[in-house]
């Protein structure tokens, strides 16, 4: 299978390159892989994810996602790349002045889909995440678990090539966490979407085969 | 209520800036015609040994615009009343040539002195009288009023600009999160800033209409009833339809710069 993400001697750093977080990491992630990235707090899990959606430029080495080298990407190309990613955040990052339905179809809106398509998709996705009755509500009217389901629905709305999730269940109770894992498992299984999840711990109930990377002492290692 | 407050907080300083611009335009037109009057009313006296042409005078200084000969016969008839015809002829022969010299613009005393010294270099010119003192007092008063109004308009503009900057900070605070989320999902700049641009452009139109409304009122209702001669005589200068285009242009430029600054400063930093 072809690689969707590929890192070669990747070094990531903050403070204009002075503070290195990840050093000389090399790994490949194939289409349809479900990948957990774990590691202690501050090890650089979220930093790696930031680099994957182009918020942090690699200090050295290569980081290629969907054929685009993020070390040398131009702003317009990065903008286009982001439209093929589904990103889920621990703090949801929903737009609070927009309704739940409008939040869900943000990627479709960016891609220029018609209002009709957006409405149909919003209804379908919200039904999928069991929030159809909340379509006209605003994010702050929902619980944390519900808000994260909206975040997942938004990430799935344009059938992304890759889903990047940063501690998606970090703030949620067990029930909400299980719903989120189910949704991501389904996306990976049914749509062959590559899913990369940064988390503190891998869920105990998880039916899909997965790959596990640990970030430790500035290195990225796969656990076999 | 919050919606109206948000609009007013940008519209009021924008209106203050537009009022400043319009005040400046009106004042400029008013003083232009006053300056024209002063300029047209002013001439300096040049006394020459032999007749001189305007072209020759212009060669000495580019500000010289006209030269009107003062008929020497008039001077003789004034100063030699009761004198015989022969004597009058002799006086006329001995009398130098007098010219009222007009200038192309309203100049300061320093420039007048410069013209005087330029002319006096010509050996044919006997004397130049600039009537500096009376000219100077009128000019100083005029300049002082002009300066005061410009300072006032400038001050008003600075205060309003500070209020606009304050509003830009509020916009940034209110829209930053939305714009950053949209950016992460790949939204182009125009899409993420669309809401802000719409708000600001609507405000620019409303502020232009309100400012124009104020000056329409002043021109067509207040000025004719004010009983102030200057206002009645110069009613046309109070507001022109082209001013509306100038105001709209200024308002749009200002909002586009303001919104663009907010959008660019709200971009997720690519570290």
List the helices and strands and how they pair.
The complex is a heterodimer of chains A (224) and B (271).
Chain A: E1 3-14, E2 19-30, E3 34-38, H1 45-52, E4 60-65, E5 68-69, H2 75-82, E6 85-88, H3 100-104, H4 106-111, H5 115-128, H6 144-156, E7 162-166, H7 174-191, E8 194-198, E9 211-216, E10 219-223
Parallel strand pairs in A: 3-8, 3-9, 6-7, 7-8
Antiparallel strand pairs in A: 1-2, 1-4, 4-5, 9-10
Chain B: H1 2-41, E1 44-48, H2 54-60, E2 64-70, H3 72-79, H4 85-94, E3 97-103, H5 109-120, E4 125-129, H6 132-184, H7 189-192, H8 194-226, H9 229-233, H10 235-238, H11 241-265
Antiparallel strand pairs in B: 1-3, 1-4, 2-3
Helix pairs in contact in B: 1-6, 1-8, 1-11, 6-11, 8-11
Explain the overall architecture.
The complex is a heterodimer of chains A (224) and B (271). Chain A is of the alpha/beta class and 224 residues long. Chain A has helices at residues 45-52, 75-82, 100-104, 106-111, 115-128, 144-156, 174-191, and strands at residues 3-14, 19-30, 34-38, 60-65, 68-69, 85-88, 162-166, 194-198, 211-216, 219-223. In chain A, the strands form two sheets. Chain A has a six-stranded mixed sheet with strand order 6-7-8-3-9-10, with helices on both faces. Chain A has a four-stranded antiparallel sheet with strand order 2-1-4-5, with helices on one face. Chain A has seven helices and ten strands. The two termini of chain A are 19 Å apart. In chain A, helix 6 (144-156) runs parallel beside helix 7 (174-191). Chain B is an alpha+beta fold and 271 residues long. Chain B folds into two domains: 2-37 and 149-265, no CATH class; 39-137, Alpha-Beta Plaits (2-Layer Sandwich). Helix content of chain B is 74%, strand content 9%. Chain B has eleven helices and four strands; from the N terminus they run H-E-H-E-H-H-E-H-E-H-H-H-H-H-H. Chain B has a four-stranded antiparallel sheet. Classes of the chains: A alpha/beta (224), B alpha+beta (271). Chains A and B meet through helix 2 and helix 4 of A and helix 6 of B.
């Amino acid at each position: 299978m072809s690689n969707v993400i590929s890192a070669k001697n990747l070094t990531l750093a903050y403070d204009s390159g002075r503070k290195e977080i990840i050093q000389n990491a090399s790994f490949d992630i194939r289409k349809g892989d479900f990948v957990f990235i774990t590691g202690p707090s501050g090890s650089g899990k979220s930093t790696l994810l930031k680099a994957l959606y182009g918020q942090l430029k690699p200090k050295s080495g290569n980081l290629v996602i969907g054929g685009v080298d993020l070390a040398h990407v131009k702003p317009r190309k990065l903008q286009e790349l982001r439209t093929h990613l589904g990103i889920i955040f621990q703090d949801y990052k929903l737009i609070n002045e927009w309704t739940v339905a409008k939040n869900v179809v943000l990627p479709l809106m960016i891609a220029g889909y018609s209002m009709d398509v957006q409405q149909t998709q919003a209804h379908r996705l919200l039904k999928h995440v069991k929030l159809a009755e909340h379509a006209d509500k605003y994010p702050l009217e929902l619980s944390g678990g519900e808000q994260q389901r909206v975040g997942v629905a938004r990430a799935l709305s344009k059938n992304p090539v890759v889903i990047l999730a940063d501690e998606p269940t970090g703030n949620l109770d067990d029930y909400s966490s299980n719903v989120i894992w189910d949704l991501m498992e389904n996306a990976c299984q049914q749509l062959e979407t590559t899913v990369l999840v940064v988390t503190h711990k891998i869920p105990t109930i998880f039916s899909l085969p997965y790959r596990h990377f640990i970030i430790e002492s500035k290195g990225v290692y796969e656990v076999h | 209520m919050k919606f109206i407050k948000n609009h007013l907080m940008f519209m009021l300083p924008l209106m203050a800036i537009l009022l400043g611009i319009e005040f400046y335009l009106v004042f400029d037109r008013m003083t232009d015609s006053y300056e024209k009057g002063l300029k047209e009313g002013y001439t300096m006296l040049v006394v020459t040994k032999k007749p001189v042409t305007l072209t020759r005078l212009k060669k000495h200084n580019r500000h010289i615009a006209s030269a009107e000969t003062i008929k020497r016969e008039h001077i003789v008839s004034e100063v030699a009343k009761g004198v015989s015809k022969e004597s009058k002829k002799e006086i006329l022969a001995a009398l130098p040539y007098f010219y009222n010299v007009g200038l192309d613009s309203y100049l300061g005393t320093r420039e007048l002195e410069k013209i005087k010294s330029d002319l006096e270099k010509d050996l044919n010119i006997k004397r130049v009288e600039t009537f500096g003192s009376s000219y100077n007092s009128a000019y100083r008063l005029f300049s002082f009023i002009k300066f005061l109004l410009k300072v006032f308009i400038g001050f008003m503009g600075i205060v309003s600009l500070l209020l606009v900057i304050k509003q830009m900070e509020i916009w940034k605070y209110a829209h930053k999160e939305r714009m950053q989320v949209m950016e992460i999902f790949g939204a182009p700049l125009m899409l993420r800033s669309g809401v802000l641009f719409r708000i600001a452009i609507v405000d620019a139109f409303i502020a232009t209409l309100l400012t124009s409304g104020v000056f329409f009122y002043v021109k067509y209702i207040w000025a004719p009833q004010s009983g102030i001669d200057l206002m009645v005589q110069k009613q046309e200068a109070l507001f022109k339809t082209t001013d509306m285009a100038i105001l709209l242009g200024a308002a749009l430029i200002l909002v586009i710069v303001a919104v663009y600054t907010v959008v660019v400063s709200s971009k997720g930093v690519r570290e």
